[in-house]
TrEMBL record:
SUPFAM superfamilies: Ribbon-helix-helix. Pfam families: RHH_8. This is CopG family transcriptional regulator. PANTHER family: BLL4998 PROTEIN (PTHR36215). One of its GO terms (biological process) is regulation of DNA-templated transcription. InterPro entries: Arc_rbn_hlx_hlx (IPR013321), RHH_8 (IPR041088), Ribbon_hlx_hlx (IPR010985).
Length: 139
């Protein structure tokens, strides 16, 4: 039976928790809108407000992503990806708007040899040792 067991890739979170401070009047107005049924809860209101602002600035975001040559969305870097870069004598300049994931089996040494810089607008998921090894390259 042990031969049939497969290690599953850890599930990545679909969102990141943030904390904000609001004035009591703003919070009360949100609670009023929730109570009146416009939103299911405070989080629903805040997500809707954020999405509305992102929609409002959509054209600027698109132009900036193109200008800075950012990968948009989820970008996963496997050990094989990094080994190929290293074997070719090249280095990566990772630029992601969204989530950049460096696989759990990537060693700190391989990461330092294959990654020259990391610029992530969003979140970077990597082993703590890999993040520490790349600390001087993350902006």
């Amino acid at each position: 039976m042990a031969g049939n067991v497969h290690e599953l890739r850890p599930k990545l979170p679909e969102s990141e928790k943030i904390t904000i401070n609001l004035g009591f009047v703003d919070l009360g107005q949100i609670d009023l809108l929730v109570r009146e049924g416009f939103y299911s809860n405070r989080t629903d209101f805040i997500r809707t407000a954020i999405r509305n602002q992102l929609d409002r600035h959509d054209e600027v975001v698109k132009k900036t992503v193109a200008r800075h040559q950012l990968d948009l969305g989820l970008r996963h870097y496997t050990r094989s990806d990094l080994e190929q870069v290293r074997a070719a004598g090249e280095v990566l300049h990772i630029q992601v708007l969204g989530l950049a994931v460096i696989a759990a089996d990537v060693s700190p040494d391989l990461a330092r040899e294959a990654i020259a810089s990391i610029h992530v607008l969003g979140a970077l998921s990597a082993a703590p040792a890999v993040k520490a090894a790349l600390a001087d390259r993350i902006r």
